[in-house]
Write a structure and sequence with these properties.
- The structure is a homotetramer of 383-residue chains.
- The first copy, chain A, is an alpha/beta fold.
- Chain A contains 15 helices and ten strands.
- Chain A has helices at residues 15-18, 36-46, 55-58, 65-82, 109-128, 151-171, 196-202, 218-223, 228-237, 265-277, 296-321, 324-333, 345-353, 358-362, 368-380, and strands at residues 11-14, 50-54, 88-90, 133-137, 142-143, 177-181, 190-191, 212-214, 245-246, 284-286.
- In chain A, the strands form two sheets. Chain A has an eight-stranded parallel sheet with strand order 8-6-4-3-2-1-10-9. In chain A, strands 5-7 form a two-stranded antiparallel sheet.
- Chain A starts with 10 loop residues before the first strand and ends with a helix.
- Chains in contact: A-B, A-C, A-D, B-C, B-D, C-D.
- The interface between C and D is large, with 100 and 102 residues.
């Protein structure tokens, strides 16, 4: 079993993940800032392929043009020195108080315009550093007070911004795809487009649907207790899995962004299996952070752990496919017979005439308990 | 305030709702069966506009052709006598053991074929009695054991069935639209297409997307703690709100199907406001049932209560629109200025050159606490 | 209906509530610090009875003795000038990084000792300013990694601290009762003693159980989807409701601390009814804060709203008791007959010999739908 | 690794678990009734130690005395023939419509009396067959309509019943302990005493607290998203873990009663570790059932799986204790220094005088990410 991460595994981390300083609603920072250049070197050292960022993870919101240039120059030098790539970039449209009631969906048209301007500049920065995927997470696009915002108007405003930015990217001849990231709540009481599927429904209504996909995040679907596997499967089936955020989370609570594989071993096994078997070839991005109890050394324990567990689960996915007992059950539970096929009057007439023995069909054995136990054995390493 | 329901209010109930007999996983029936003919008469009496049914709510799964004809004849007579309509029909693809592992997504092609045949016959029945909307709720289309089912294959199988049935309806020249109804779990561990938005993402991939929309149910989104208001708004904005299931539910627990407005007064106020203001003109269908502690008389208390609370909330929506204090805050929170507008190089250049005063923008007052308290006052009747 | 708050209503706010500056995990402060002296004056103006604080809400953790004395002197002067009381005080054992892995339950005995010392000093401060109730909320007493902490040892450590502090209060002849406040999670993955009932089970194991009770918080039970009404009822029945934290919250998500009555109108109606009818005479403490979108003016809108809704619901509780329709149903649903009474051989023999008609008993009418609709009408002001 | 269950492992199943027939709110029975005698023989064959039952699992509610005697005689013969024990028994106070609004907490005193009578007879039956633990699960003791029931009165009624039954057991000289089982909701909207801790708070208020403990069930705490580990730890620490119900469940949804270890590998590992290390010597009772998709053969797959996973996790608990890497981290994270100790004036004075270096204490390394990854490795079998 190969458990040493290599660039070919396409593991990526955000500057904000390994750079997370451990502040939470009830307590202050516990770790010092992490210099982006050092982050790149450390990521290279542990075998990561890439690093992603929000504009202000790299360049402070108040930086002068000269500061921006120096920061970008030094960052690029670190990338060049290490071979670390920048596959994805995104915009911070949530930290500054200007976005307190939304960015693209703000009531104030000036805030909406500023958010689009900020995104254009952040896209320029991302593309300059090599990004091919641009993520949109609208952390403040939501409401606590539904009296104050028309949710239909919010959708229209969001569409206007995305359409504008698609055209900007096309006009700039950027080789860039957009990936929309959903979250049900936090920091807003409710966030618009709460699930990955909300964006799958929204994308076909855009002016350039072909360049827009989704960036599902495990923790975000898990917060609502929804099956992440099924959400990612729908995105894949629709050809819309443009990026993915891997982490862990307990359902029904605050956004935890835990180390990948630290809680949800079985669901994440099936996720890794799906990604690998479906040939997803984008980044495996870990959008998580170390526990607040960790120091700097612990941050890198955390990062190594994310990759290690992914590789273990990937190996188990291979073992699943090669497991005789499992494959036997899988073969048995699949029935045979003529497919429904496309509609025709003849097909419909034939179907209407067909007789079915409900009791016989109902009594067919489906050895799911046996199958599931074989999976548990496989996961626990006693197969 | 008009609180007496009338057919113009378009209130509908399912036979399975007023006919619910109170069985649950831990206890037996507490109420006798409700004869469909009597149901129609009682619904007429309390001011309902329509009655909906699953095929087997009306015609038992084992009925002979003669029994079917007699039942339909008597039911139609009751409809004619009372003026009660049948706006919607649907198929029971979940009660019989034959569907224990799914209907359209079963591993057994014979079960899938039987499910399509059963739906064709149920569509015939529904259309015969006047239905214009056909609902699909795939209660068994899901899994407890993800090892046993490929979720991508499940989506494809579901699409095959819907496409076939769309063509069947078209070929029969049925004036019928399909409305897909989502639910996250129960009775399956996870149900495919867990939210309304899952279907909004699925519909554009169908062969006849124009004839397929959604049937959101309050309790089902609420089970996952998602905003029903926002889900319905997205459906409306996409032109896909073909039907709606109204009831009540506490989040994060089993499917309760409570009397409309019995728990979630504020969310349901905004829902009614949205439906009324957006001109939704379909049925207001109550998919709920009386507490298991009720007898027959209590069933009709329950039904009357659903309609009464809807009418109260509708009146409050009118009061909201006419409330000076509320409208003043709403006017204040909306900023003014030039819209973003469609993309052009000039627009982009202008935007890039624009200077924004973040602190000034951030300090703009948004009196949401005041606004929300005015809404609470309105709801509590002390405005 | 009297809706103007007065000191006799015993409404209290924490310095940290009206002083909340709107920082959250994804964004910075949006409001400037609120001077405690100004807080007292504003609270007096809006009709609050009292103000509560964590030690460091009033006196910074790094203050010198001289600074402390000046702050306390000025604060007391504000109290004297306004008549505002300090009914409760508590310790901040969660903000400083020293408590990153717990205070009373830390693995490091020096941290545990420091936490007890800090609490002793904070008790001194609270008592000096008049507090009669001392609240313990162990925000960091929990774990993300169960491998790292023995939960049984955590209970023992927590007990040692509480027992020590009880003795300290007794030795100082402080007229002080302790109130333990539970929360299921956030900021820790899981917090020990996750519910009010956990403390009701813990208190009888203390050295001085008579001086320790609970401080239930609506949002905290609501996060786990539990009935706050039932939790408070159990605390009252056990004589342990020493304090209460009122606010609002949607279930199954991050800690929202919303304005009292902004979401959960029905549950909070029954809560107010219970408190008023059971003669609870402690503070009605609002542990909540204004939306992050608010400015200073909005903070006071928020505070006024909490009290206003409490008074409206209190009035509706009176109306419930006087409502003929409601009281008629309540009288009907109560059966009559001989109570079970205490055990004796004769009573047991009589009971064993008794014959019951299950069907007759089961068929008894319980008009809960009707009753609940009358409550909804009452809440909506259409009774 | 020993993975063959033996009576010494004390695995038990309820008749209602292996006998579950797969009915749910949306579908009918899929499996035929399981004869109790056959259940005993099958359980013996797979290595179970004991079998538990509700009175009506064994003896139908309408059985004559002669039928009861015959059933008990045949059941006892099966026990004798196989060596299977009956460690626990309980009462069905939820299936029959007579209990539709509660048993011990019903408004109707005749229902309350009947429930106590039924429990006395069921205790007689249980004791006759060897039970030493008697479980109380009040499935119908709750409400959907809080207007209809005073929750304080419900507590008092429940106490009256338990006190009466304690005295009955004592008077009969039954060697029997009571174990109270909590559940937050389902089938009632809210159930009184929703968590294990609710009963830990209730027990000290009983007339005979020493004979009453708790029966925590994994699924029930998990439904509310609470840590089962911490709940069981509190019960153990209080000396109140009299029985335990093992199964599996996803949080925030209907009661699933899944095969032990099928979902929550990490939480259940820590649970097994706690039980084994704390010397819990009661039954390991599996309160779960096979998926509705299973036939009879699958039921026994299910039962074997429960025991197998328990034994695997027990083996991993041993490996945890013997794991050098894990034990090294555990040793490092424990600080040293003088314990707080009991209160005295001198101890308090010394503590008040003590100086603490907050920054130094805060900077102490706690390698929880490393530790947790070692546990994940251990669970996945790659340690």
């Amino acid at each position: 079993m190969k458990l040493t991460p290599a660039p070919a595994d396409k593991f990526t981390f955000g500057l904000w993940t390994v750079g997370n300083r451990g502040r939470d609603p009830f307590g202050d920072f516990v770790r010092p800032p992490l210099d982006p250049v050092r982050a790149v070197h450390c990521l290279a050292e542990i075998g990561a392929w890439g690093v992603n960022f929000h504009d202000n993870d790299l360049v402070p919101i108040d930086a002068t043009a000269a500061e921006r240039d120096r920061i970008v120059r030094e960052f690029r030098a670190a990338l060049d020195a290490t071979g670390v790539t920048v596959p994805m970039a995104t915009t911070n449209l949530f930290s500054d108080p200007v976005f307190k009631d939304g960015a693209f969906t703000s009531h104030d048209v000036r805030v909406r315009r500023y958010a689009v301007q900020k995104t254009m500049r952040a896209m320029d920065l991302g593309v300059e550093l090599g990004a091919r995927t641009y993520v949109f997470w609208g952390g403040r696009e939501g409401a606590e007070v539904d009296a104050g915002k028309d949710p239909i108007e919010a959708i229209k405003r969001f569409r206007d911004a995305i359409d504008f930015l698609c055209d900007y990217a096309r006009d700039q001849r950027y080789d860039l795809r957009f990936a929309l990231e959903a979250k049900p709540n936090e920091p807003r009481g409710d966030i618009y487009f709460p699930t990955t599927a909300s964006y799958l429904g929204f994308i076909p209504t855009l002016a350039h649907p072909e360049m827009v996909g989704v960036n599902p995040e495990f923790a975000h679907e898990q917060m609502a207790g929804l099956s992440f596997l099924h959400a990612v499967a729908q995105a894949l089936e629709a050809g819309k899995l443009f990026h993915i955020d891997l982490n862990d989370q307990k359902p029904g609570r605050f956004d935890q962004d835990l180390r990948f594989g630290s809680e949800s071993l079985k669901p994440l096994f099936f996720l890794v299996k799906l990604l690998e078997e479906q040939g997803y070839d984008g980044p495996r991005h870990f959008d998580a952070h170390a526990y607040r109890t960790e120091d700097d050394e612990g941050v890198w324990d955390f990062a190594r752990g994310c990759m290690r567990t992914y590789l273990i689960l990937k190996d188990k996915a291979r073992a699943f496919a090669a497991h005789d007992g499992i494959q036997t059950v899988l073969a048995e539970i699949r029935g045979d017979g003529d497919e429904l096929g496309p509609y025709s009057r003849q097909a419909a007439a034939a179907l209407e005439a067909e007789a079915f023995d409900r009791q016989a069909l109902a009594s067919r054995r489906l050895a799911y308990e046996r199958l599931d136990q074989l999976v548990i054995d496989l996961l626990l390493g006693v197969a």
